From TrEMBL:
It holds the Pfam family SpoIID. Residues 306-382 form the Sporulation stage II protein D amidase enhancer LytB N-terminal domain. One of its GO terms (biological process) is sporulation resulting in formation of a cellular spore. Keywords: Coiled coil. Residues 23-78 form a coiled coil. This is Sporulation stage II protein D amidase enhancer LytB N-terminal domain-containing protein.
Amino acid sequence: MPKLKIVSIFLFLVSCFLFLNARLVMADELEEIEKKLSDLKRALQMSIAATSPLEKNLTTLQKNLSEIQSKITIIEADVVLKEKEVLEGEKLLILAQELLGQKVRQIYISSSQFNSTKVLLLLGKNLNLTLRQFGYQKKAIENDRDTIVKVVLYIKDLENKKKTLESEKVRLASVKKETDNQAQFLQKEITGAKKYQGTLSSQIAQLSARQQQLLVQKLESLHLPTSLGAGPLFCTDDRKLDPGFSPSFAAFTYGIPHRVGMNQYGALGRAKSGQNHKDILNAYYQGISFETRDSNMKIKVQGYGEKNLDEYLLGIYEMPDSWPLEALKAQAVAARSYALAYTNNGQSEICTTQACQVYKGGNKGGNWEKAVNDTKGEIMVYQGEIVKAWYASTFGGFSFTSGDVWGSDRGYTRRMRDTSGDVGSFSDLSEKAYDRESPCFYAAQGFRSEYAKSAWLKSDEVADIVNVLLLAKNDGTTQSHLSQIDKPNPDGVDTWDAGRVKSELKNRGITPYNSISQASVDWDKGGGKVNSISIQGDAGTSSFDGTEFRNFFNLRAPANIQIVGPLYNIERK
């Protein structure tokens, strides 16, 4: 093969090698990883400084670490590739040296032909041919010079790449070490967060049985109806009441128990928006179908003996007769389904109070009678099972599953936002919730005989509730002493007043609050529950889990004042 062609092949190989090497991951990608690692450190520092549960931040940190590990894996693969190509480059250098050696020898031989004697001889033989040969060899020398320059530049480039590779290896090792350290620290943080959650759950669970009874008694003292069958709703808008002191704070709850099944005021709102009774029922119970049962089948009614199914239904008093017909029809189907499910198709007896559904006997008549007749025998079925169609007066814009509330899930109950569109704030919820017309949609529950019979609390009273929570979290053994001050202690021990609670906190190195200036909540706009609550006062800022705060608020707040659901807001007046 001609040597000139060999050189051309060599230059082609060099060009290919340079092109392939250009696609490798270079130092800028490593800089990106180092930047992400720096961002990770900053995020981790913010997480450590946070006082609220770290789970959300830790999830983000874990994701970042996973991305860094993936990048490291890619770089390691590229390092292996670079080392391989370096070896190939060294082989090319050896070949280049051989080719250049041959070229040098060729040039020497060619140049030696042009001594004076040979030049005269050649000129004598064929002047044109001689000049042409000399020109060719001169051009070859120039090409060889270009080749030598390119090879030198290539060698220089290869040496630079070697240095870059060595630098990347060192930096990669540093990044790997940092990543491993962060992974270990992250795992420690996750463990700590889960331990905190476990401790939190344990502390909440440590509320004594007697304290739990106190909470039940406080709830019962509110006389909140389970459904509209118990009569008109009497929820006072405390925002219109002046307690006579300022600042004042009150906990306003969205809805009243139990928020499972059909929202009666929600059915009103949906009917007004044009939904028919099946639309309404499908909104509140998922996966259902509609079937018809014999409207004359017998059902046992407590205190009334046996009644035909739809005859019994005519005496149900669960929804005002003035409401839209489609809402009444939805109520009729729900009440009929509930009765059959509760009695196991009439085999057992159903009570007549709101503990079941309110029955007053006779025929309520009017639009209710029409709703019963228009839905004659109609019930809801889920996977072959008659739906036990729970319902309640006011959900506060959100429904929950039976498992959320009672611990036993029925597949047809659903967790959802009961609004006409997305919500991004409490004001949005008040505008878009289907049950917004209920007087109990947003209300502060409970009152004291003084302070305009309102649920407003003084700043130092809220501070006391916060201090109780801080003490209980720090030392769960103190909880039996932390019930409300104005009632006998359910555990039969002394109840610590505000001063004693502060003293106990100080003894444990915790600064107590004397006054509260602000309270704000972070809530789940899709699920309808408070995630966390932040309290600001003279001792700084403290954050608590939403359920945690509600439990201790209800335990310590005076009289029967309490938060009665998962979604609430703290207002300042």
